[in-house]
Amino acid sequence: IFSSKEEGEGQKSKGDQAKELLAKYGGAYLATSITLSLISFALCYVLINAGVDVQTLLQKVGITTDATGEKVGTFALAYAAHKAASPIRFPPTVALTPIVAGWIGKKADKEDK
Predict the structure, then answer these.
(1) C-alpha distance from residue 67 to each of 2, 44, 48, 89 (Å)
(2) Confidence of residue 36 (pLDDT cuts 50, 70, 90)
(3) Domain boundaries, the chain
(4) Model-level pTM?
């Protein structure tokens, strides 16, 4: 239903970057990624359910759509839009993971005392 623009050559793939974040930050990366994914899916669902043309919004940021999206239900369309928006979600995940790791680390330090 949706597809994003290709990544530039010579850059690490998003999958490789995600593996590095997981290796470095572990649970903090997973918590950040899952939280942002849940927010993204919920937002897509609410927007589609409210009648917002999410396909047009995604096209404005370079994510193409096809006519198949008009034939599926709200949940499926929201999921497809959520997955297509992954390139938009990944940079905040990268930026927020060290912050979340710091919070988790600080909480662990306080519990040890």
Answers:
(1) 10, 18, 15, 24
(2) very high
(3) 19-112
(4) 0.68
